Each structure stands twice: as structure tokens, then as C-alpha cells.
């Protein structure tokens, strides 16, 4: 077994940050059930779809309870959990569409 997924899941929200030209993210709604996390992600996406500010992405990520509790809001780290492991992909930048835009010219 190569799978070493943590003991829980969270809904990850990626937010655009115009003045930094980057992306910030936060983790919400920790649960130990993948199915529940996926359901919540759908509900979360639906919730924000009607708002003036929308997340760039709403995804489900595997994350341990301790990591979830220690994680702050407005995080810009590229090493934080992504949904890549759930898709059987290598984490951190290996997923198309998650690359950060280049610096403004
Ligand atoms: Zn983070």
C-alpha cells in the first residue's frame, strides 16, 4: 500500500487575491467521511455561486485533524494539502489548472 492518506477531509476554498496577484486558501468543515466532505463541497460551491465574491475552486482535500486545526486562514503555502492524492496524482503543482499566474508585467 502506498496510500498514506490522513484521518480526515476538509473542504478547501481557494480565493483570488488581486493585490498580491496570487491565491489564498482556507480549509473548512473537517470531517472523517469522504462522502460527507464531497457532499459539503457541492453545497459550499452552490452557496458561493450566488455571492458577489466566488472562490476560484472548491475542492475536497485529505487532511489530518491536527493539521486542520493548526491551519490558518489566508494561507498562501503551496505545500498544503490538495485534492491531488484523491485523484491518484502527485501533490503540489502536478494538477493542471492549479498553477499560479505569473507576476504582473
Ligand atoms: Zn495552507
Give me the Rg, rounded: 14 Å
Outline the low-pLDDT stretches: 93-99
The percent range for helix content is: 10-25%
Residue share in β-strands: 15-25%
Task: Explain what you see.
This protein is of the alpha+beta class and 105 residues long. It has a domain at 9-73. It contains two helices and three strands. The chain has helices spanning 34-49, 65-70, and strands at 9-17, 22-31, 57-62. Strands 2-1-3 form a three-stranded antiparallel sheet. The chain is globular. The protein starts with 8 loop residues before the first strand and ends in a 35-residue tail after the last helix. Zinc ion binds at residues 25, 71, 75, 77, 80. Zinc ion is lined by residues 25, 71, 75, 77, 80.
Topology of this structure?
Elements: E1 9-17, E2 22-31, H1 34-49, E3 57-62, H2 65-70
Antiparallel strand pairs: 1-2, 1-3
Bound molecules: zinc ion.
Notable traits:
3-stranded antiparallel beta sheet, about 100 residues, alpha+beta, globular, binds zinc ion, about 20% helix
Task: Summarize this structure briefly.
With 105 residues, the chain is an alpha+beta fold. The protein has two helices and three strands; from the N terminus they run E-E-H-E-H.
Amino acid at each position: 500500500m502506498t496510500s498514506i492518506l490522513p484521518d480526515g477531509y476538509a473542504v478547501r476554498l481557494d480565493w483570488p487575491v488581486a493585490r498580491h496577484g496570487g491565491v489564498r486558501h482556507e480549509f473548512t468543515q473537517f470531517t472523517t467521511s469522504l462522502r460527507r466532505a464531497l457532499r459539503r463541497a457541492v453545497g459550499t460551491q452552490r452557496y458561493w455561486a450566488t455571492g458577489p465574491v466566488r472562490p476560484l475552486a472548491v475542492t475536497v482535500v485529505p487532511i489530518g485533524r491536527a493539521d486542520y486545526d493548526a491551519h490558518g486562514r489566508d494561507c498562501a503555502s503551496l505545500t498544503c494539502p490538495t485534492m491531488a492524492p484523491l485523484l491518484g496524482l502527485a501533490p503540489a503543482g502536478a494538477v493542471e489548472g492549479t498553477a499560479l499566474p505569473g507576476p504582473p508585467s
